[in-house]
Amino acid sequence: MQQTTLTSKGQVTIPKIVRDFIGLHVGDKIEFVITEKNEVLLRPITKKVDDVFGVLYKSDRNAITVEEMDAAIKQKIRESFQ
């Protein structure tokens, strides 16, 4: 069993063996799930490609080229530095 200490700010360090076991990396999101048995589960939040596929698609929008995207990005960068 792995143990850790709760800080005065409500923070804990997840032991390395646990991070490795569930595949956590720096910047990953986790969720806490309270079960019917009043137990708390810690789970990594993962997204699959299928979960986000088509999220940017809008049927009423015309497709643009990569060159047009690049030009729009350059324009926004220019505007932000003026």
Q: First CA to last CA: what distance?
A: 57 Å
Helicity, as a percent range: 25-40%
Low-confidence stretches: none
> Could you state the oligomeric state of the chains shown?
single chain
SSE string, helices as H and strands as E: HEEHH
Q: Taking all residues together, what is the mean pLDDT? A: 89
Describe the strand arrangement of the main beta sheet, using strand numbers.
Answer: 1-2
The number of distinct β-strands equals: 2
Task: Round the Cα radius of gyration to an integer and report it.
Answer: 22 Å
Taken as a percent bin, the fraction of beta residues is 5-15%
- SS-based structural class? alpha+beta
State the shape.
elongated
What count of helical segments does DSSP give?
Answer: 3
Main sheet characteristics: 2 strands, antiparallel
